[in-house]
Amino acid sequence: MDNNLLLDNSRSKEFIKKLKDDFRNSTIRKDAHAGTAYEADKDKLKDQIDSFFVSKDGPGMPSQSSQTKRLKGVIAPHIDIGCGGPCFAWAYKEIAESSDAELFIILGIAHTGTKNLFALTDKTFETPFGSVETDKDFLNSLQKKSRTDYFEDEFVHKDEHSIGFQAVFLKYLYHQKKNFNIIPILCSSFGEADKNETGSVQAYQFKEFVTSLKETIKESGKKICIIASVDLAHVGSRFGDTELQDAAYLDKLRADDTDMLKYVENLDAEGFNNSVQKDRNSRKICGYPAINTLLNIIDASESKLLKYTQYADETNSTVSFASMSFY
After folding, report:
1. How far is CA 111 from the centre of its chain?
2. Which CATH number belongs to the domain containing residue 242 in this structure?
3. How remote is the C-alpha of 107 from its chain's centroid?
4. How far is residue 80's CA from residue 248's CA, in Å, rounded to a whole number?
5. Are 114 and 12 within one domain?
6. For residue range 109-152, what is the model confidence (pLDDT) as tens digits?
């Protein structure tokens, strides 16, 4: 166990400390998933992503004509690209055809524990198509507006896929066409604030961060598109559920998910929150914090559901996800 660093001793602690120090001192967030979640070779990766657009569940390749430029944001999945590629394609076709953004604010999900509700990084993200730069001036301005140090949990970005996957798709769209930057924000799990100390801290941080982000967006004067990188329900044996996932169960799951997404289409943050919390988030909507954040910062007047998908595995477990657009 000691050889595999499974003991809580000085050797394992020193190893973890070195990992964190190396990441902190690097300017690069290395690609943690090339060669596993998607092709590492850029030509093979282009072919792989092309196939998602033209698959039977895909939207078709982006059009080069009659493009509009009024897209304010999208919701895209963060499930493994091999499982959800066509659904990703629906969001990115909309970006390709309807966005003139120079800066993409990516609201990902922290799948590991954090001290604060949000975690920032200003590192450059590697992808097989090339590097994606963060807007350091924007990030510095955002942090200066906040009392909380939102770089404190930066290490969780190291292997987190929810922002890295979006960086890959953005670079696929634009690696030969235009320069762009990203703002990588990981959102941690939170529920409705209550009267205890934890709830009070969460409520304060959420208000502080959302206010600071909206002010920084306004001050930047940049063309911005917001991407919420989220999945929806996580149900089945892998997630602690015992119900048989037959056709009736999955039909109800679809109905419950799409009823929830109607609040998102209506840009109704309170209604969305209530729809998730009414059964204590029994469907385990992992994208809840990022969608809630998006609804509180986006300056949009309409939204539409582009694609809804369920992915079931051999363990009687299902993850649902969707793509949406905001104008």
Report:
1. 11
2. 3.40.830.10
3. 5
4. 26
5. no
6. 999 889 999 999 999 999 999 999 999 999 999 999 999 999 99
pLDDT in tens, 249-273: 999 999 999 999 999 999 999 999 9
**pTM of the predicted model over 0.70:** yes
Rounded to whole angstroms, the Cα distance separating 282 from 300 reads 29
> In this structure, which amino acid lies at residue 42?
K
**DSSP collapsed to 3 states, the chain:** CCCCCCCCCHHHHHHHHHHHHHHHHCCEECCCCECCCECCCHHHHHHHHHHHHHCCCCCCCCCCCCCCCCCCEEEECCCCHHHHHHHHHHHHHHHHHHCCCCEEEEEEECCCCCCCCEEECCCEEEECCEEEEECHHHHHHHHHCCCCCCCCCHHHHCCCHHHHHHHHHHHHHHCCCCCCEEEEEEECCCCCCCCCHHHHHHHHHHHHHHHHHHHHHHHHCCCEEEEEECCCCEEEHHHCCCCCCCHHHHHHHHHHHHHHHHHHHCCCHHHHHHHHHCCCCCCCCCCHHHHHHHHHHCCCCCEEEEEEEEEECCCCEEEEEEEEEEC
Report residue 198 as tokens.
């934890």
Tokens coding 244:
């048989």
Residue type, 289: P
Amino acid in the structure at residue 263: Y
Coil vs helix vs strand at 269: helix
Residues 155 and 299 in one domain: yes
- Given pLDDT bands bounded at 50, 70 and 90, which one contains residue 11? confident
Domain that includes residue 19, residue range = 1-30
